[in-house]
Every structure is written in C-alpha cells, then in structure tokens.
Predict the structure of SufE family protein.
Amino acid sequence: MFDDWMQRYEYMIELGKSLPLIEEQYKTDDYKIKGCQSQVWVHADFQDGQVVFTADSDAIITKGIIALLVRSFSHQKPEDIIAADTQFIDEIGLKEHLSPTRANGLVSMIKQLKMYAIAYQAKANN
C-alpha cells in the first residue's frame, strides 16, 4: 500500500490520532504495559461477548503501533484474540523497522492484549 517506510510511519501516526483513547482514570501503573520504552496504557472492557480496547501512549510512533493493534483486536471474541495469528506484523515488516526496544514493546503490547482476552474468556466460562 505504501512505497516507503516514511509513508508507513506517517500512516501509523495518523492511526494514533484516531485511537479510541483510554479514560484518564486508567492512566495508572496498573494499566501500563511493562517492557515498553514509552509509556503505553491499555484498558479492556467486555461488551456483548467481545473485548473492546482503549489505549494511549506518550510517544507518537508508539501510539500508532498500539492503535494498529487496537484496530486489529478490538471488538473480537476473547477466543479469537487468543488464537489470532500476528504474522501480519512480520508481513508488513514492522518489527524490522523498529528499534530493538520498540520491537520488544510491540511484543509486550500483543501479550497484554491477549492476557486481557484470556482473563475475559476465563471469566465468561465461570
């Protein structure tokens, strides 16, 4: 879709601007993703059998990354999030164009979204 990485970064920045923002009450250490160079907060709600994510970050690229993940995983059933193949991240070459610390942060973000899904699935099964 984009010819070069500058265009992709610009698109990610635009995605970040459209991110469903987390409420201020969730911008605490309890909702902060560990392992990210920047501050990233994620909150999840369970609505009509689907997990709905909101998030924010203090860095524009990181905000774009979490926006991409929120778009991909939000409004999905927990089992679909858990089983989701994140191969698309490798296919678009995102990891290889991030610094090692940002790439680790990306992995941490995915893990956290999947952990929310696991928690909601367990809650639904009880």
Observations:
- The longest strand covers residues 40-47.
- The CA atoms of residues 67 and 113 lie 12 Å apart.
- The radius of gyration is 14 Å.
- The chain has one domain: 5-125.
